[in-house]
Amino acid sequence: MPAFDINSTGESVGKVFADKIKGKTVIVTGVSPGGFGADTARALALYGAKVILAGRSLSKIQATADAIHKEIPGADLKELVLDLSSQNAVRQAAEEVLKYSGPIDVVITNAGVMGTPYEKTVDGLELQFASNHVGHFLFVNLIMPKLLESSAPRVVLASSVGHYWGPVRFDDYGFEDGKTYDKWLAYGQSKTAVILHGVELAERYKGKLVVFSVHPGGAVTNLSSSMTKEDYEKFSDFYNLDGTPKGRLGS
Ligand SMILES: NC(=O)c1ccc[n+]([C@@H]2O[C@H](COP(=O)([O-])OP(=O)(O)OC[C@H]3O[C@@H](n4cnc5c(N)ncnc54)[C@H](OP(=O)(O)O)[C@@H]3O)[C@@H](O)[C@H]2O)c1
């Protein structure tokens, strides 16, 4: 197998695994144009997967679907509206998935927000924790019967280096109802929770399910839309030149 590096693209990796991708049904969350999810969906479609494009905005899902169809006219795509910040919406989306015929082979929980101002969801949770972790945790658990119908199911959870930024604050995951909110500790908490979700899934479904928690690398996407000049400065102090963190940000 060739080594992949900073120049590897979704397409170049997909080419190597084309025989494994062909014919698989894959859900990708967070597929808005310009992000990792859209590019992942494109590469999967290119190599013959059926791709379920999941996101909270139907118009953005359609924009990505249109772009893929334009390039790959025979692409097998399906749209799924999924707002991870609402547990009710997650349950509705999962119900829809459970009605699909055939197994789900892979779910890639890519959607996320980062460094957003303090906000509470309809369920009363801090937004980053709710969107990045709780929504995906609920969605993956609810569609588990469909995953287990597959002969080789996989769950791929997009994390980050967030576990260097902050742990899960089990005693105060809501930052005292926002009073002590720190947007970077909150992002770190949410991504650490994503990793722990992966560890526990792998343990509970040992031998039945393969689970990956993946740091996708750094790229300028819409994710950084909440970042200020000060945030960029803080980050340049936090990382070594090779992109590895220098240490922990929070405690
Ligand atoms: N970019 C990086 O350098 C980097 C580094 C480490 C980890 N990551 C991780 O990689 C993943 C993808 O990030 P990206 O850089 O591609 O960011 P992006 O372009 O902002 O994409 C994030 C996607 O998540 C969706 N999303 C946000 N909140 C949602 C919700 N409540 N329900 C459903 N979908 C929601 C967004 O939809 P809308 O367009 O509707 O907002 C968008 O489609 C994220 O999990 C991120 O934490 C990225």
TrEMBL record:
Family stated for the protein in its record: Belongs to the short-chain dehydrogenases/reductases (SDR) family.
Name of the protein in question: NAD-P-binding protein
Record InterPro entries: NAD(P)-bd_dom_sf, SDR_fam
A Pfam family matched in the record: adh_short
Record keyword rRNA processing present: no
One term of GO molecular function: oxidoreductase activity
Organism annotation: Mycena sanguinolenta
UniProt keyword terms in alphabetical order: Oxidoreductase
Taxonomy, superkingdom: Eukaryota
